[in-house]
């Protein structure tokens, strides 16, 4: 669907207020015209004898040449005023000071009306625009959040943030203020064009021939603006990526004393952004001189033509001057419309990027008719599972694995051998390329995605916590849960004691990513969160970073509580975990090379034994 048509659908719920605002803005334009007419009325009436203009007007030639439509319009306004009871008071020809007072009041009323209508026209339009943008931003955010994990592999978080903030801001600017200008200026343009056709349609047709001269450069410039905006926004997104990384990773930057390195990186990117913006500025400001040149050509034609007509006596100087003045008047709305067009082009390219993000296909979806998730999990099985991130290199190759209810399955292997990838297939962060994963014999792709994930608890190496209270971090999204339940989970996770010692207990804010608490405490909070969720399946990626002995013991105990009565898949790094595991699967280069208990595998004297010696050393034996 074309971008504009698709975007217009966002206006659908607000058509009423949009049309109303346009009607009001129409009156604003009409009031401008009335104002001009009243000004003429004053010149013709009460002030006529006192101004130099009135003297010029007095000359017979001008009287003859005066534009019929101005006289018509004046008469209409006069008639209208007379009808409304102003007639007797407002004797424009022989005006007294009382008449002037009436005119002043009339002007005041007009300006008040213009003020009120301008306010309401733009206010309604602004509110409608902001409503549309609010809906667009919500849609964009929800489509991003609903995307699969591979989407987040593809797009850097800075890019996504840039789309939601900058791109939407550009569209917002165009929608909330520029649409009104577009409407108003178009209206002015139509009125002036009508006037010049009214004065001399032949000359106006001749001018129409020059019209393509204006349109072609406008189209070319619009294209250049769209291209430059895309480049500028791309560079802005890249800059946001650097910002995001260095601000959230500020400690690492400092630890490695890499401030200057990061500054250089930022300065370079900022320079690229600047260059893109220069291109944008060039494209934007180029339109004005081109338009002026075309304007000068038009005017020259008018002058040559007018000169001929005056000489042949077909046109009077007065009519010609009025015509020229109207042609000059054309410049203002055209210039403003040109500026509006420039901003609209930028908004178009932003819209394209926003929609392209929304159109990204999410391959991980719930089936249309999902199978009910089993009440009780009897068995989870990997059947000939293979997986590749890029469709070429197999990261997992023909994996066969079984976990019965309540069993603990440990996965071990060297770094990069595919352990995380393997466990990520269970909650369908990715779908296997070949084979299938089943729960009680049913392919996991047949379950509703939410049901499947609600039955899986995940505790990862880097504990993801939110800048919120301890309570909200444990309850995550379930604020209605009673405090006792949260406390119970925290007790099982050996977190209750340290939480109680905090200033506000469960209401303490733990800062961005749990910055205000220790690593061990963070892990125990994450364990409490998983305990509260109470899922039958558990995925555990044990932290490799060493904690101090006391913390380590507490985390270990918390994990033991968490693993009780659950079918657990654990990427094991702790000796106690592998010792207690029902089965250990040893992965090497994406393949399962050994299976067995700790003792069985040690006896084999194979890959596991070698890994064990490297990771835990003989001293542990
Ligand atoms: N999102 C991704 N896109 C592309 N390739 C990936 C992605 N994640 C991992 N890989 C690649 O897949 C392979 C397996 O990675 P995986 O993270 O599963 O290994 P791992 O055994 O868990 O390693 P570690 O113990 O170091 O965490 C690696 O070669 C890695 O580079």
UniProtKB/TrEMBL annotation:
The chain crosses the membrane at residues 12-32, 100-125, 182-199, 205-225, 280-305, 317-334. Gene3D superfamilies: ABC transporter type 1, transmembrane domain, P-loop containing nucleotide triphosphate hydrolases. It is found in: Cell membrane. Its main location: membrane. One of its GO terms (molecular function) is ATP hydrolysis activity. It comes from the Bacteria. One of its GO terms (cellular component) is plasma membrane. SUPFAM superfamilies: ABC transporter transmembrane region, P-loop containing nucleoside triphosphate hydrolases. Residues 380-614 form the ABC transporter domain. It is a multi-pass membrane protein. Residues 92-346 form the ABC transmembrane type-1 domain. Keywords: ATP-binding, Membrane, Nucleotide-binding, Transmembrane, Transmembrane helix, Transport. This is ATP-binding cassette, subfamily B, bacterial MsbA. It comes from Thermotomaculum hydrothermale.
């Amino acid at each position: 669907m074309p971008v504009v048509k698709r975007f217009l659908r966002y206006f659908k719920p607000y058509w009423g207020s949009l049309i109303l605002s346009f009607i009001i803005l129409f009156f604003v334009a009409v009031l401008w015209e009335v104002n001009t007419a009243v000004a003429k009325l004053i010149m013709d009436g009460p002030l006529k004898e006192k101004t130099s203009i009135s003297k010029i007007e007095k000359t017979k030639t001008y009287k003859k040449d005066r534009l019929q439509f101005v006289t018509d319009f004046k008469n209409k306004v006069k008639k209208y005023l007379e009808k409304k009871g102003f007639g007797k008071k407002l004797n424009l020809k022989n005006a007294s000071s009382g008449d002037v007072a009436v005119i002043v009041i009339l002007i005041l009323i007009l300006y008040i009306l213009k003020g009120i209508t301008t306010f309401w026209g733009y206010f309604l339009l602004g509110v409608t625009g902001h409503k549309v943008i609010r809906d667009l931003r919500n849609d964009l955010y929800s489509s991003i959040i609903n995307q699969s994990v591979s989407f987040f592999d593809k797009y850097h978080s800075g890019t996504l943030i840039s789309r939601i903030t900058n791109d939407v801001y550009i569209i917002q600017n165009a929608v909330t203020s520029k649409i009104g200008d577009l409407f108003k200026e178009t209206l002015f343009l139509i009125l002036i064009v009508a006037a010049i056709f009214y004065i001399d349609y032949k000359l106006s047709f001749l001018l129409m021939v020059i019209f393509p001269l204006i349109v072609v450069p406008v189209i070319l410039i619009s294209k250049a603006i769209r291209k430059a905006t895309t480049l500028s926004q791309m560079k802005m997104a890249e800059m946001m990526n650097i910002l995001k990384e260095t601000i959230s990773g500020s400690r690492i930057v400092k630890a490695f004393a890499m401030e200057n390195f990061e500054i250089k990186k930022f300065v370079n990117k900022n320079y690229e952004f600047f260059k893109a913006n220069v291109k944008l500025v060039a494209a934007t400001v180029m339109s004005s001189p081109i338009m002026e040149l075309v304007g000068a050509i038009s005017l020259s034609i008018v002058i040559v033509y007018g000169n001929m007509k005056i000489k042949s006596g077909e046109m009077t100087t007065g009519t010609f001057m009025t015509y020229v003045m109207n042609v000059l008047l054309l410049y203002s709305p055209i210039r403003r419309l040109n500026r509006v067009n420039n901003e609209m082009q930028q908004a178009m390219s932003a819209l394209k990027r926003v929609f392209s993000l929304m159109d990204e296909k999410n391959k991980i979806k719930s089936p249309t008719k999902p199978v009910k998730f089993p009440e009780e999990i009897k068995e989870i099985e990997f059947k000939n599972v293979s997986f590749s991130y890029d469709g070429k290199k197999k990261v997992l190759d023909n994996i066969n694995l079984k976990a019965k209810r309540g069993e603990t399955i440990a996965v071990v292997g060297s770094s990069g051998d595919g352990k995380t990838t393997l466990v990520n297939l269970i909650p369908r962060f990715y779908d296997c390329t070949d084979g299938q994963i089943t729960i009680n014999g049913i392919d996991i792709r047949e379950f509703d995605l939410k049901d499947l994930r609600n039955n899986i608890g995940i505790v990862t190496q880097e504990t993801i916590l939110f800048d919120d209270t301890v309570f909200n971090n444990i309850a995550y999204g379930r604020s209605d849960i009673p405090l006792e339940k949260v406390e119970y989970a925290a007790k099982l996770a050996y977190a209750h004691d340290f939480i109680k010692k905090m200033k506000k207990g469960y209401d303490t804010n733990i800062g961005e990513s749990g910055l205000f608490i220790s690593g061990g405490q963070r892990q125990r909070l994450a364990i409490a969160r998983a305990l509260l969720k109470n899922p039958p399946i558990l995925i555990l990626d044990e932290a490799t970073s060493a904690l101090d002995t006391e913390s380590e013991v507490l985390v270990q105990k918390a994990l033991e509580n968490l693993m009780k009565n659950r079918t657990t898949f654990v990427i094991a790094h702790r000796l106690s975990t592998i010792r207690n595991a029902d089965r250990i699967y040893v992965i090497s280069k994406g393949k399962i090379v050994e299976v067995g208990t700790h003792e069985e595998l040690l006896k084999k004297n194979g890959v596991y034994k070698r890994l064990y010696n490297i990771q835990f050393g003989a001293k542990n034996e």
